[in-house]
Amino acid sequence: MTSVSEGVGELRRPLAGVAPGERGATRIADRVVAKIAGQAARERLTDQSPDTARPQATVVVHHDTVHVRLHLELDYPCDIGARCADVRRHVALRVRALVGMEVPEVAVHVERLHLIPAHGVAHGRTR
Question: Which family is this sequence assigned to (predicted)?
Answer without folding.
Answer: Belongs to the asp23 family.
